[in-house]
Design brief:
The complex is a heterodimer. Chain A contains 8 helices and 11 strands. Chain A has helices at about 5-10, 45-50, 80-85, 120-130, 145-150, 185-195, 210, 245-255; strands at about 35, 55-60, 70, 90, 130-140, 165, 175-180, 200-205, 235, 260, 265. The N and C termini of chain A lie far apart (about 55 Å). Classes of the chains: A alpha/beta, B alpha+beta.
């Protein structure tokens, strides 16, 4: 007969102290979103724009020396642009914590803006900073985001230690966390879950599919992102976003972490 | 095209005889799909005559009156025919289950017809037998379920604890991924394949790349082949560990759940350090790998530590009577049903069907890295867990074997398929057999792609283990199947 309780006690705690202390977020080696460097593109080279499967890359005059801009809300981190770039313009990075309050912060803009959600953040900060209950809805994902969301409750991330819980009923949820490409058939259940939530309530789009449609955008059943359906409070692109990035985005919503990308610039 | 698949053009009238002969000689159907050659609809039936023999693609031109349904002879074709009927609009006559599967027919132009436009809603109505009587209750469960789960809807008819009838409604998250391939270059298609079902991202990329390599008749260099096996087995390890965590949860073994999830997490973290991605993505390309990879110095030590803990964990599970008791005789799948309805992977092997693509039709480096196939006869949840436990132990050995075979050298050969070519690729994913069939257009871009996913096969089988059982066992039975909804829905 296996002695599970004794086994559990002997194992002790496997949880990381991050983000409260230390830097053991568990994502060593994970490749993140590409960065635009201060190089100049070869004449009329559009290799990165052509290979990007989700049309995340474009040109904007004066945006950078090269004029290349990336909409991180569309990036699925496939690294094809980095591979084809003949100049030192696009560079792979390990930057993955890209949760933002304002969708525009994932796109390059001429002027650096401060987030507009200061007032909302203040309200959440005072009322919900310590605890949050989440209802997750899969609105057409590939299962990758679910795999990483399920990981949040494993002993390493141990989400409960941060006062954050997944709940079965939308009636006791503060946050609707949505993954997937918004298939037409899932819109009804999605809105039903949203309607059932008490106010105040928040919405988070997890994964590039929920942020902008991702790889399935343009398909015959899919949408173009969650903000077509519901008011979104935090966007977290990634394909899939890793558990530490999700924790960062949840704490961002609660005002317990700060945004790491503004106006399309990785910091 | 290499010798792995034989094209056999066939007349409609010859189909039943050919199918009966195939079944009588120990073969099995794998799938059927429709595509368009020069604008004319064709149906391809993929037949597997047996281990070591080339797959056969029976190609039939579709006459105006449609095709006879072959589901009465090979029941596993039933879902493929219904899907073709919904998405391409080809009629199958005398189908034993003529109902829509993916979407309501007649409401839209079939979305896979060339030139079809607009969006469709994939809510096929339930097709249920009439159930009446006192005390019979009807329960609609999902698509939004407790905890973090993929979306699918289930209907139960039950009396007290006893389930009379169970019907899943899938395809609510059908994303039309097969059409997303159309028009892409072979290299770009990999990015889509990896995102069809992300918990088998490597298997999908592998089967897809091998389909392109089949079309181009090229072979990746040995180092790339060893890397492909290494990554595929690491993917199997984290999936099977996830499975045991989930199964322990379903049997209310909380420490067992935590340990399974912790081991899964360690494997994913190791994967990230090996290849830059916790779910192995952005690595493969037709002809080999996109970039060379380096094993971290402590890889062998890390893997050995995970293996040691995993073996201890599996021993503890099999030494826990409360866990074994809940699995024994739960959700029994007979060998006959498993074969007829098309069960695959650990599910069929737990019902005594000795099939595994890695051994029967070796790909990548599996001709050298031959796995011992785990087999059980009982067909219950315990047998399914035991098969996965054996596979898990076996996968560590295969990873180590692949590490030994990582010689120096290049990792990619040029691989450009001819315009108009066809290719078939496959992989034994953690959930079972996965096939990609691809056709290229006049510019050597993808004209058509068909994915036969293991969860599509196993979701077809699963309800037969639920009818006439009881509610208490349902969650355990579902966990013991280890199904992916995204893979099924695509």
């Amino acid at each position: 007969m296996a002695l599970w309780t004794l086994f559990g006690l002997r194992k002790g705690s496997a949880s990381t102290d991050w983000p409260k202390a230390g830097n053991n977020h568990g994502q060593q080696g994970v490749w993140g979103m590409p960065r635009v460097l201060d190089g100049a593109c070869a004449d009329s080279c559009e290799a990165c724009i052509e290979v990007c499967p989700t049309q995340a890359i474009g040109r904007q005059e004066k945006a950078s020396t090269s004029g290349i801009v990336i909409d991180y809300g569309r990036c699925i981190t496939c690294q094809r642009c980095v591979e084809v770039c003949p100049e030192p313009v696009l560079q792979a990075t390990d930057t993955w914590a890209l949760g933002v309050r304002n969708r525009d912060d994932l796109r390059w803009q001429a002027a650096l803006q401060t987030p507009e959600a200061a007032e909302l953040g203040q309200r959440i900060q005072t009322r919900f900073q310590r605890s949050l209950h989440i209802r997750h809805v899969d609105a057409g994902s590939c299962g990758g985001c679910e795999s990483e969301l399920q990981a949040l409750n494993n002993p390493f991330y141990n989400l409960h230690r941060l006062g954050i819980f997944f709940t079965a009923s939308p009636r006791s949820a503060d946050l609707l966390l949505v993954t997937g490409a918004l298939t037409r058939s899932m819109l009804g259940p999605l809105h039903a879950a949203w309607e059932a939530m008490p106010e105040p309530r928040w919405v988070m789009a997890i994964g590039t599919c929920a942020v902008s449609g991702g790889i399935a955008e343009g398909g015959y059943t899919c949408g173009h992102g969650l903000n077509e359906e519901l008011p979104v409070d935090v966007y977290l692109p990634g394909c899939p976003p890793n558990p530490a990035a999700i924790i960062h985005a949840l704490l961002l919503l609660l005002g317990r972490s700060s945004q790491r990308v503004h106006a399309g610039r990785l910091t | 095209m290499s010798g792995q698949v034989q094209m056999r053009p066939m007349l409609v009238d010859d189909l039943p005889t050919a199918l009966n002969t195939l079944l009588a000689t120990g073969g099995r159907m794998q799938m059927a799909y429709a595509w368009f050659r020069d604008g004319q609809p064709q149906v391809c039936y993929l037949a597997a005559p047996g281990a070591g023999q080339a797959f056969e693609c029976w190609s039939v031109a579709v006459p105006a009156e449609g095709l006879p349904s072959l589901a009465p002879i090979a029941p596993l074709l039933g879902w493929y025919e219904r899907e073709i009927q919904d998405l391409v609009g080809i009629v199958f006559r005398n189908h034993p289950e003529p109902h829509p599967l993916v979407l309501e027919r007649g409401e839209h132009t079939p979305p896979l017809l060339p030139g079809a436009e607009g969006v469709v809603t994939t809510t096929a109505p339930h097709a249920l037998p009439e159930v009446e009587g006192e005390d019979i209750q009807e329960l609609d469960f999902g698509p939004v379920r407790a905890d973090v789960l993929e979306s699918a809807q289930f209907r139960f008819f039950y009396i007290g604890e006893r389930i009379l009838r169970y019907q899943p409604r899938l395809f609510l998250k059908h994303r039309g991924m097969e059409r997303r391939f159309q028009g892409l270059t072979p290299e770009a298609g990999v990015v889509v394949a990896e995102r069809v079902s992300a918990t088998a991202s490597l298997a999908h990329a592998l089967a897809y790349c091998q389909a392109i390599e089949d079309a181009a008749d090229c072979e990746p260099p040995p180092r790339a082949q060893a890397w492909r096996c290494l990554l595929a087995e690491l993917e199997r390890i984290y999936n099977h560990l996830h499975y045991f965590g989930h199964l322990a949860d379903a049997t209310t073994l909380k420490v067992g759940q935590a340990q399974g999830r912790w081991l899964e997490e360690q494997t994913k973290q190791l994967l990230a350090r090996v290849c830059g991605s916790r779910l192995p993505m952005n690595l493969l390309t037709p002809g080999g790998l996109r970039r060379d990879l380096l094993l971290p110095d402590d890889f062998a030590g890390q893997l050995a530590a995970i293996e040691k803990e995993t073996r201890h964990y599996l021993d503890m599970l099999s030494d826990t009577s409360s866990y074994i008791d809940r699995l024994q005789a739960t959700g029994v799948l007979s060998q006959q049903v498993a074969f007829d309805k098309g069960a695959t992977g650990p599910i069929e092997r737990a019902s005594g069907l000795d099939r595994d693509l890695r051994r029967d039709h070796p790909y990548a480096d599996y001709a050298a890295l031959v796995p011992e196939i785990a087999l059980r006869e009982a067909g219950d949840a315990l047998a399914r867990a035991e098969v996965r436990a054996d596979e898990l132990r076996q996968s560590f050995a295969l990873v180590k074997g692949a590490v030994d075979r990582l010689g120096a050298g290049e990792v990619c050969h040029p691989c450009a398929p001819e315009p108009g070519s066809f290719g078939l690729g496959w992989a034994e994913s953690p959930r079972g057999s996965l096939f990609y069939a691809v056709s290229l257009d006049t510019q050597a871009h993808l004209a058509w792609a068909k994915i036969k996913s293991p969860s599509y096969s196993n979701w077809r089988v699963f309800p037969f283990t639920v009818h006439d059982t009881n509610m208490m066992d349902y969650a355990i039975n579902e966990a013991s199947f280890g199904l992916s909804v995204a893979g099924c829905d695509r």
